[in-house]
Every structure is written in C-alpha cells, then in structure tokens.
Amino acid sequence: MRIGDLSTRTGVSVRMLRYYEEQGLLQPARLPSGYREYCDDDVHTVRNIRTLLAAGLNTQTIAAVLPCMVDADGTLAPACPDLLPGLQRERDRIDQAVADLLAARAALDTIMGAAPSPGAGDPDACQAA
C-alpha cells in the first residue's frame, strides 16, 4: 500500500509517517519509481508507535524499544526482560514530570487564592500604568 493508504488506515498524517521513517521507526520498501510501499504489518507498527508515544516515550526511545516489543491481543508487552530497566527509567521520568506539574498547579492555586475577591480592594490597582 502507498503512504496515503497507510495514513488513511491509521489516522496518522503522511507528514508524520515520513517523520517516523526518518526516525527509523518505519522501514517501507522502495519501488523502482522511488515510491514507498507499506504492508499490513506497518499498520500495526504505526499503531504501536502511537501507543508508545501516548505512554510518554520519545521517538529515540521508541526506536530502541519497538523491535523488542510484541503485540499480544492488542496489548504491547516487552519481549525480553532487558527492556524493563529502561522502561522503568521512562516511568520515573514521567512521574517526576507529573510531580512538577502538580507543584506548578499548587503554586498557581496559592496565587489565585491570595487574590482579593471581585469588587474588593482598589479598582485602580488593576489598571495599566
């Protein structure tokens, strides 16, 4: 199938599919005309890439992990235990990002809580100088 067909079947833009190829995540066959030729397995590969991206992994990590993953009944799983430490590091990184976002939200809540209620205080205080 051509790249436009893969795009239609996966819901991923042609531009993004080309990016996945540049990152080494997809390796389509090339016809003598230079056109990319994809197979049905590439549909599953693109879906797996999307799953790993949604899990917070970057394309560099996905390129290292993807060849060692198996798709068992629609669920991705590592094919070898050697992947687990790297996946744990990624999970720890995501946990830290979540903690940082929660701290930022708490700081914003504190700032918002310190604001005077509407109609209270000096009405000219919010005017630009």
Span between termini = 63 Å
CATH architecture of the largest domain: Orthogonal Bundle
Number of helices: 5
Tally of strands: 4
* H/E series: HHEEHHEEH
Key features?
129 residues; Multidrug-efflux Transporter Regulator, Chain: A, Domain 2; single chain
What's this model, at a glance?
With 129 residues, this protein is mainly alpha-helical. It has helices at residues 3-10, 14-22, 40-54, 59-65, 84-113, and strands spanning 29-30, 36-37, 69-72, 75-78.
If you had to describe this structure to a student in words, what would you say it looks like?
It is a single chain. This protein is 53% helix and 9% strand. It has 129 residues and is mainly alpha-helical. The chain folds into two domains: 1-79, Multidrug-efflux Transporter Regulator, Chain: A, Domain 2, CATH 1.10.1660.10; 81-114. The strands form two sheets. A two-stranded antiparallel ribbon has the order 1-2. Strands 3-4 form a two-stranded antiparallel sheet. β3 (69-72) and β4 form a beta hairpin. The radius of gyration is 23 Å and the shape is elongated. The mean pLDDT is 87.
Layout of helices and strands, plus pairs?
Elements: H1 3-10, H2 14-22, E1 29-30, E2 36-37, H3 40-54, H4 59-65, E3 69-72, E4 75-78, H5 84-113
Antiparallel strand pairs: 1-2, 3-4
